[in-house]
Design goal:
Length: 259
């Protein structure tokens, strides 16, 4: 407890799933946290759950569209007005866009990159000046095992996630001398609503779920809280020399040679 005491955090896509788990973990560890989320009702409800479960929580929900620069700046400003300068940004907001490359529409391509890559850059660009000026800060980008592994049928999502990894490394090196660290987390399968929606899209959801579990070395998939633990570590003072890198949290799945 209190590993993030005195820190201020902004978490995008924090209304559910991994984002909510990260926001909850940050608050539990003592950070004042803003839940920046396009679905404001989801963010508000998540903030209320955090407040009920964490006495003394300092938490705020803000409607944020990460594809819009002005909206991201407004979230940053709301965070700083409520709690003070931002110590940690978690760029978690993202969407799945899985298409056949040759039948995919231009709108599908733009929608994927607008959220999954441009949204990350908008967040970084909004907080970097303040972090550079103060000479400290931690940015955590939620990438994916799609950032370095390709699964057929998932285009163009892995293209955007490869970009997130490149952005992480480039910014981490660019501002290392300013003591601003930029890192990524690459989750594998995580039990979120998106995962359940994917299973439920199959003719036999139970069989689809079991097939996913059978692929995992640990014969289970991650819980959102397990991704949040890594985010807490990267945001804390326990990781002062970790920069421009990616921590994979997939139970060993990406280390397998075969399916």
């Amino acid at each position: 407890m209190n590993r993030l005491a005195g820190k201020v955090a902004l978490v995008t896509g924090a209304g559910r799933g991994i984002g909510e788990a990260i926001a909850h973990a940050f608050v539990r560890e003592g950070a004042a946290t803003v839940l920046a989320e396009l679905d404001f009702d989801a963010a508000r409800q998540a903030a209320e759950r955090i407040e009920r479960e964490t006495p003394g929580a300092r938490v705020l929900a803000v409607r944020t569209d990460v594809t819009q620069w002005a909206s991201v700046c407004a979230a940053r400003d709301a965070c700083e007005q409520a709690f003070g300068p931002i110590d940690t940004l978690v760029n978690n907001a993202g969407i799945n866009v899985f298409c056949d490359p040759l039948t995919m529409t231009d709108d599908d391509w733009r929608r994927c990159f607008a959220v999954d890559l441009d949204g990350v850059w908008n967040g970084c660009k909004a907080v970097l000046p303040g972090m550079i000026e103060r000479g400290r800060g931690s940015i955590v980008n939620i990438a994916s095992t799609h950032s370095f592994q390709i699964i057929p049928g998932c285009f163009p999502y892995p293209v955007a996630k490869h970009g997130v990894l490149g952005l992480t490394r480039a910014l981490g090196i660019e501002y290392a001398a300013k003591q601003v660290r930029v890192n990524a987390i690459a989750p594998g399968y995580v039990e979120t609503q998106l995962t359940h929606d994917w299973w439920n899209g199959h003719a036999d959801p139970a069989a689809a779920r079991q097939a996913t579990l059978d692929l995992q070395p640990m014969k289970r998939i991650a819980q959102p809280q397990e991704i949040a633990m890594t985010a807490v570590f990267l945001a804390s003072d326990e990781a002062p020399f970790i920069n421009a890198t990616c921590i994979t949290v997939d139970g060993g799945r990406s280390a397998l040679y075969h399916d």
